[in-house]
Design brief:
This protein is α/β, with parallel strands linked by helices. It folds into 4 domains: 191 residues, 3-Layer(aba) Sandwich (Alpha-D-Glucose-1,6-Bisphosphate, Chain A, domain 3); 112 residues, Alpha-D-Glucose-1,6-Bisphosphate, Chain A, domain 3 (3-Layer(aba) Sandwich), CATH 3.40.120.10; 128 residues, 3-Layer(aba) Sandwich (Alpha-D-Glucose-1,6-Bisphosphate, Chain A, domain 3), CATH 3.40.120.10; 136 residues, TATA-Binding Protein (2-Layer Sandwich), CATH 3.30.310. The strands form 5 sheets. Strands 18, 19, 20, 21, 22, 23, 24 and 25 form an 8-stranded antiparallel beta sheet that branches. It has a 6-stranded mixed beta sheet with strand order 1-7-6-2-5-8, with helices on both faces. InterPro entries: A-D-PHexomutase_a/b/a-I, A-D-PHexomutase_a/b/a-I/II/III, A-D-PHexomutase_a/b/a-II, A-D-PHexomutase_a/b/a-III, A-D-PHexomutase_C_sf, A-D-PHexomutase_CS, Alpha-D-phosphohexomutase_SF. GO terms for molecular function: magnesium ion binding; phosphopentomutase activity. Its cofactor is Mg(2+). One of its GO terms (cellular component) is cytoplasm.
Length: 586
């Protein structure tokens, strides 16, 4: 019943444009563990009023089946600032339609009255003991996209088999229920609650448990620049600084207010490097700020840059910031906990494609480190399991600039990560140390971990399948490569098929998934490289790392060795020319 999407379809039918209609109606968006992510527009392959209604009807039925007290506890729904004029879709409208679906079935809904960061939704699920949470956001995707992200009652993103159960329930509930389109009904319902004021108060109270140097924060002369890249983060990072008694960061004026057009950046993704930070660098130079904090549009990720002695800006990789935050959070914990026995219950997590620096710190300091599959859904769920066993999960991170620094949120959170990074930098400044110098100190103590990651774009699923099939049948059927250029392969783990050459029974310990491609190669020189497909973008990604034991400080040689390994990986395993792959461009 949306007049805009309806008009687009009628126009295409009138023109007999079968190609475009096929694009919109050829196949339904797949509901996976990341929920939905697609462009806004008409048809069952896009995000629009109808597909949101259908998805929520399925999700509602699935929750009714799983929770006998759903009508007592309810769900939370949050949204970002995305909007798409030509199809009339927006995150706020989708959130209201989803709320209407639940309320029509007698389910209480805690619908945020205004935009919020993504981490506020899992926080609310836990804090109010709700059955589930929905966040309408496409994070840092291009402006035409939107998404529907789902959290379970434990406050973590859903994992299998919930995705399949929800997907099936969506298939079974496609016809909109009687009042599905009339979202005005919710405004007068006693089942509608607005958690905005409460959660804003409670969240900032909870993250203060991670504030350990209030006096230093009050006195520091360090200046920070913050950008929310036209997303939701501005107000919340300002409040986080206030909660930590830090002077507010300078906000990049052109980017501080939400704007669904993202007019000043090509991609609203701080992971893409310096291009997104151009305006931040200019403001920092003008105001004499040394450190830049950049959130992605839904404020669950954080990028950090620091001005070096040379006047150049260094943008930290996700792995480098993971090393710094891991060191910092453990150091703060150690200062608070003098009991030598307490360390046996301390855990840190990172995903299998992230740097192994936390493992090196854990080995030397005596706490536990665990590796999970890629994605915070795995780290969040594992952290909850450990916390339920009475363990302390201090920190989890992923190289894609995602950090979980505070146990109150079982997902990546760019707001708490920003303010904790600011406190760490303020503390280091009292010791006359920069973040870069401290990073070097971490590597000196625990061993250098040098990483390099990138991706190729490929829009043809057949080519991707062929590329990975070729690696599994490299020297004849069912044989993996024994070398990559001059680099000897010493181990292979394939989490698509479940093969792991390092295990006695050759079976992988981590869960496997046939629906996504992921192979990790270990090399005789201490290098590790993982190739995998992305769940939300048409990319084949790779992640590589060289880990040196403490004492090996010839970083230039290590970097050179890693560059050569990556070049060999691209040439022999990706074969970009043969497979017509498009390189990442800055």
């Amino acid at each position: 019943q949306n007049p805009k999407t309806s008009a687009i379809v009628k126009q295409l039918v009138a023109e007999g444009n079968v190609g475009e209609l096929q694009k919109y109606f050829g196949s339904r968006m797949e509901f996976g563990t990341a929920g939905l992510r697609a462009a806004m527009g008409p048809g069952i392959s896009h995000m629009n009023d109808l597909t949101i209604i259908q998805t929520t009807q399925g999700f509602c039925r699935y929750l009714e089946k799983n929770f006998s007290d759903l009508k007592k506890r309810g769900v939370v729904i949050g949204f970002d600032a995305r909007a798409h004029l030509s199809s009339g879709g927006s995150s706020k409208r989708f959130a209201r339609l989803a709320a209407n679906t639940f309320i029509s079935q007698g389910v209480p809904v805690y619908l945020f009255s205004d935009i919020t960061p993504t981490p506020f939704v899992p926080y609310t699920v836990t804090h109010l003991k709700l059955c589930a949470g929905i966040m309408v956001t496409a994070s840092h995707n291009p402006k035409q996209d939107n998404g529907y992200k789902v959290y379970w009652e434990n406050g973590a993103q859903i994992i299998s088999p919930h995705d399949k159960g929800i997907s099936q329930a969506i298939e079974e509930n496609q016809e909109p229920w009687p009042q599905a389109w009339d979202d005005k009904l919710i405004d007068s319902s006693i089942l509608l609650h607005d958690p905005y004021a409460t959660i804003n108060k409670e969240y900032f109270k909870d993250i203060q448990k991670q504030c350990f140097h209030r006096n230093i924060n009050k006195e520091t002369n360090l200046k920070f620049v913050h950008t929310s890249v036209h997303g939701v983060g501005h107000k919340f990072v300002q409040l986080a600084f206030k909660a930590f008694d830090l002077r507010p960061p300078f906000a990049v004026p052109e980017q501080k207010d939400p704007d669904p057009e993202f007019p000043t950046v090509k991609y609203p993704n701080p992971e893409e490097g310096k291009g997104v930070l151009t305006l931040s660098f200019a403001l920092a130079e003008k105001d004499g700020a040394k450190i830049i904090l950049a959130n992605d549009p839904d404020a669950d990720r954080l990028a950090v840059a620091e001005k070096q002695e040379s006047g150049e800006w260094k943008v930290f990789s996700g792995n480098e910031l993971g090393a710094l935050l891991g060191w910092w959070i453990f150091t703060c914990w150690k200062n608070q906990n003098r009991d030598a026995c307490a360390i046996k219950d301390v855990y840190m997590l990172s995903s299998t494609v992230s740097s192994k620096i936390l493992r090196a710190i854990a080995l030397k300091e005596g706490f536990h480190f665990e590796e999970t599959l890629t994605g915070f859904k795995w780290m969040g769920n594992r952290a909850k399991q450990l916390m339920d066993q009475g363990k302390a999960v201090l920190f989890a991170f992923e190289e894609a600039i995602g950090y979980m620094c505070c146990p109150a949120v079982l997902d990546k959170d760019g707001v708490s990560a920003a303010v904790i990074t600011a406190e760490m930098a303020s503390f280091l400044a009292t010791r006359n140390l920069s973040l870069s110098q401290q990073l070097k100190a971490v590597y000196d103590e625990y061993g250098f971990h040098i990483t390099k990651a990138s991706y190729f774009i490929c829009h043809d699923p057949k080519v991707i399948q062929q590329l990975f099939d070729n690696l599994r049948n490299y020297d004849g059927e069912n044989t993996y490569p024994k070398s990559c250029g001059r680099f000897k392969v010493s181990g292979i783990r394939d989490l698509t098929t479940g093969y792991d050459s390092s295990q006695p029974d050759q079976k992988a310990i981590l869960p496997t998934s046939k629906s996504s491609q992921m192979i990790t190669f270990t090399f005789a020189n201490g290098g590790v490289a993982t190739m995998r497909t992305s769940g939300t973008e048409p990319k084949i990604k790779y992640y590589s790392e060289l880990c040196a034991p403490p004492g090996n400080s010839d970083t230039e040689q290590l970097k050179k060795e890693l560059d050569e390994l990556v070049n060999a990986l691209e040439k022999h395993f990706f074969q970009p020319e043969k497979n017509n792959l498009q390189r990442k461009t800055e």
